[in-house]
């Protein structure tokens, strides 16, 4: 799979993200921790990070692929992914989060690229075959094949859902599938 295929898939994702961005809520400048008081309980926050370099990512993937300067060139991103099967600056934080039933789980995209925060039964690959190959992921997570336009979080966007069942839930980015988190939900 070539970089060109990654570019084509990213272009589709970018178009979907832009189309959906009018429903996204921008980050508040006061967001700084992982727990915030809201009406009816507490929000638990997972931040989505990346460190893309706009000049090199946009040159290869197209205008708007990277909107914030993280300093990692596209070639360094691919080199790290090839060596380690992940790119460390592309991650969720925290990777393990505990919360209670009735609390809101919020995903905040603080990076410069579009991401997803997709609940999956089992971790797996995502929607970009070249990245799956470089990450050594041979099986695509089923939920990543069912994405809708609203599942893509453009830079600065957030998603939120109230957790109503106890147990352990797994979330991953369906674009950068090594970005993962485990959410442990206990009774109120």
Task: Explain how this protein is built.
With 188 residues, the protein is an alpha+beta fold. It has one domain (3-50, 90-186): Cupredoxins -  blue copper proteins (Immunoglobulin-like, Sandwich), CATH 2.60.40.420. The chain is 23% helix and 28% strand. It contains 4 helices and 11 strands. The chain has helices at residues 3-20, 54-61, 74-84, 129-135, and strands at residues 35-38, 41-49, 91-93, 96-100, 104-109, 115-116, 118-120, 152-153, 158-162, 167-172, 180-186. Strands 1, 2, 3, 5 and 9 form a 5-stranded mixed sheet that branches. The longest helix is centred in the N-terminal third of the chain and has 18 residues, at 3-20.
Order of helices and strands: HEEHHEEEEEHEEEE
C-alpha termini separation:
47 Å
The CATH first-level class comes to Mainly Beta
- Broad shape: globular
SSE order and pairing:
Elements: H1 3-20, E1 35-38, E2 41-49, H2 54-61, H3 74-84, E3 91-93, E4 96-100, E5 104-109, E6 115-116, E7 118-120, H4 129-135, E8 152-153, E9 158-162, E10 167-172, E11 180-186
Parallel strand pairs: 2-5, 4-11
Antiparallel strand pairs: 1-2, 2-3, 5-9, 6-8, 7-10, 10-11
Describe this structure in a few short sentences.
The protein is of the alpha+beta class.
């Amino acid at each position: 799979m070539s970089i060109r295929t990654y570019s084509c898939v990213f272009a589709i994702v970018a178009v979907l993200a832009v189309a959906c961005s009018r429903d996204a809520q921008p980050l508040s400048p006061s967001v700084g921790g992982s727990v915030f008081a809201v009406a009816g309980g507490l929000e638990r926050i997972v931040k989505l990070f990346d460190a893309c370099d706009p000049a090199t990512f946009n040159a290869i993937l197209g205008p708007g692929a990277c909107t914030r300067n993280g300093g990692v060139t596209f070639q360094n991103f691919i080199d790290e992914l090839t060596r380690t099967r992940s790119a460390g600056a592309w991650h969720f934080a925290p990777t393990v989060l505990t919360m209670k039933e009735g609390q809101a789980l919020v995903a905040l995209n603080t990076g410069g690229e579009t991401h997803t925060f997709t609940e999956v039964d089992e971790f797996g690959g995502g929607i970009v075959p070249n990245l799956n190959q470089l990450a050594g992921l041979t099986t695509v997570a089923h939920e990543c094949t069912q994405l809708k336009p609203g599942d893509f979080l453009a830079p600065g966007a957030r998603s939120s859902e109230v957790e109503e069942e106890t147990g352990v839930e797994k979330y991953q980015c369906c674009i950068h599938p090594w970005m993962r988190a485990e959410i442990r939900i206990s009774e109120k």
